[in-house]
């Protein structure tokens, strides 16, 4: 991460903001910037004034797409951490915490069962899909794609529950809860036994039945 | 329900239920109630009377739609009295519409919602049959959401770029608009476009069979510009794009695509993005399947491997007959369809008609479109209407005289790479019928002796 460049326009900017405290300018006001914000519209000019795209001071860079524009500001570690929620197959991004099958069952019955059903086979009326079953159906006439039959990585299960479930309160589950629900689903799928505990070390080691089920795109060489 | 399509065992219960509901919906819209006086029923267009349309719209919404101020007008229009003789009195005053504009009260095209079980996760289809030129009006651009449409204040929205970069960045909408802009006209197509048509002709209209593709002019900042600003590190190969919707929708994008022609788009057809298209910011990946073009974009993370999100493993992969599935089938292959005449229209009599339709390819420009009026036995080269753009809907036209006998109309396109649109039989031979996504086969429309146009496999 680099240090922010010093702004030659800093004082002018501060003055502009004092005069025109628009929400958008105030948003990042505290952060050092090296480039002026978009031109502000004068209040109540009485005449429509389209915002001007002309930039007063672009002397620092050669106009062109490869210029170093100095636009934006460095993202802080805290800002990144607040939304960097993805978890990948190698375990990167998995948070601290742990959860067991038993804890997961209790949570599932409270938070998940309404859509996915007591047997984890889904509930058609809600659109909630089946989570388990379907092994050995993928090459048949009625393929059933579930966590058990189709997913290649356990990290995908964690990642998706954490980011988007449950439907009525997405993003509300803690890491412990997501580990526990993942352990319960994988347990019911027969992929883990009921004593398994999932955490950032054990989850990436889970071997999914369809781990080798995916191939690269052969198009356009092949149809 | 043995009398309906999708009785095949090969469809899952959810797919069958959705498709049957859409079939029922189409029937409801296309058959106005008996009391309806619809002069157009014997004409070429189906009976999309205003009342039938409004009925359909309300049902599509699944709830009572908020009524416009002047209730009789179709969505996007204002109802005004029709003047007996507009030359004998002054017209209405300027800006009566509030300063934004509205369409004529006599125009009533709308998107149809595909009736999934959940209103939060669904898609709507563009009415291609009545489209002109190549641009889709923003209000008719197809939609696909995975967690509803978020309502985002642009002043509080920012894009964070991090991962394998020298300088992680936080960019506000003002920041992005300060950077050099780029603009292009390009199509976006959902890879599920046509998913009901693998096994048998199922939906009746071109809106149902092909309505998940639309074209707009998109404006924003080149992603390569922003990546250069941050400094991409050696070894970077994939970028995770993430939305700020309830699905926190994510896809992995190859960095070559990001550096090639990707745009961080904040505008569509000359104005800010529509909320349902990702306001205030979406990723635009010309020629890629629609779901990768993350809307409400809040985060880009540069990495060395794909991130294997749910949408690129459990969904948006193409299952083959041997039980394996193709993954990261990102590019949309060349495809064309005749939009006029098309399903559920009726030709009133033999005589002259101009066949027209759209062709597009995710790999480049359309080089040629051929049309057959005899079920594929002979082909004639259609005229391509300018502009013919890279990765863009291209309008084709061909004059045709119908002699009143039963026949089948088809179109097939070839793009500038030499790829020619396959027949359905060729596609099924290669992929079976269960891959769901990426159906780009030749579409057949049967003209019956009485002029009725229907969806067939031929």
From TrEMBL, chain A:
Signal peptide: 1-26
Domain of life per record: Bacteria
GO MF entries: electron transfer activity; heme binding; metal ion binding
Protein name: Cytochrome c
Keyword terms, alphabetized: Heme, Iron, Metal-binding, Signal
Region (Disordered): 36-63
InterPro entries associated with the record: Cyt_c-like_dom (IPR009056), Cyt_c-like_dom_sf (IPR036909), Cytochrome_c-type_DH (IPR051459)
Keyword Heme listed: yes
Domain Cytochrome c stretches: 99-189
Coiled-coil regions, chain positions: none
Automatic annotation (TrEMBL), chain B:
Span of domain Oxidoreductase molybdopterin-binding: 146-308
Membrane-crossing residue ranges in chain numbering: none
SUPFAM superfamilies recorded: E set domains, Oxidoreductase molybdopterin-binding domain
Span of domain Moybdenum cofactor oxidoreductase dimerisation: 328-443
An example molecular function term from Gene Ontology annotations: molybdopterin cofactor binding
InterPro entries: Ig_E-set, MoCF_OxRdtse_dimer, Mopterin_OxRdtase_euk, OxRdtase_Mopterin-bd_dom, OxRdtase_Mopterin-bd_sf, Sulfite_DH_SoxC, TAT_signal
Lineage: Bacteria, Pseudomonadati, Pseudomonadota, Alphaproteobacteria, Rhodobacterales
Cofactor(s) needed by this chain: Mo-molybdopterin
Keywords recorded for this protein, A-Z: Metal-binding, Molybdenum, Oxidoreductase
Name this protein carries in UniProt: Sulfane dehydrogenase subunit SoxC
BP term (GO), one: sulfur compound metabolic process
Coiled-coil residue spans: none
Keyword Transport (UniProt): no
Keyword Phosphoprotein annotated: no
Highest taxon, organism lineage: Bacteria
